[in-house]
Amino acid sequence: MKPILHHYPLSPFAEKIRRMLAYCEQPYQSVETSPMLPRRDLDQLTGGYRRIPVMQWGADIYCDTRAISERIAGDCGRPELAPSKQTEEQTAFIEKVDGELFFAIVGVAFAGKLKDKARKEFGILGLLRFAWDRMKLMKGAKSQPPKGAEARAMVQTHLSDLEARLQNGSYLWGETPTLADFSAYHSAWFLFVAGEHPGLEAYPELQAWMQRMATLGGEDIVTISAADSLSQAYAAQPDLGVNVGGEQATVIPDDYGLLPVQGRLVATEADEYVLERDSQKAGCVHVHFPRKGFVCRS
Question: Has this prediction a pTM greater than 0.85?
């Protein structure tokens, strides 16, 4: 059965996974979900996990791009995409570009044409709802996003760093794309493609790299409905089996989007937590979270 990606077009982290799937030439099914809460159908699968994307293999549901990347890397035989296989230097780079720097880029992008695009897509009231949703997303966050001149300076330094790194190879760590490339690409895509931010031509190496990243591999995508994804989960069994027991536990992100997911803790592997949940529409599902970036409480 083809995996299912739950996402929406303007999601930067979903673009990271979309590009990764294309690179692996992994066929998949696509369910477009709302960019803001509520997501009632998706909640049947995840138990209320807040962030996008989510990826589904039958009755196994993967939350956060760390867990999703690890599964894709294993299925496709691409260890260079697995968070657990990165060097210390690559890991530090990925954490930076997926963290504070990502929020700086979002701030710069929304200060330009992206706000007008969002207004056209959502309407004035919809844009206000979107802004309110993102305020709630960051409520209680470990740190607040950089803004204004600080954000612009961070982005400028980052773009110059990417340009310098790409002087030495086709990709950031040589001649083969790694997880670091996909992490850097999704925020650059959000700034220059989705956000139509000017100035990419000032970085010729970065511009050429973005073109290479955008055309890696090939896409084989089938669009399905949220109801279809629930039916597929209901008809499947999790990889570990059903009703495997475990104590009640709660898993919650430790940085932002602090909505808890509750279930029976059925696995605590080296890199992940797995909660078993029962859903009226999806049946018994196992929800996978990376250990890094999440806290599990019993």
Answer: yes
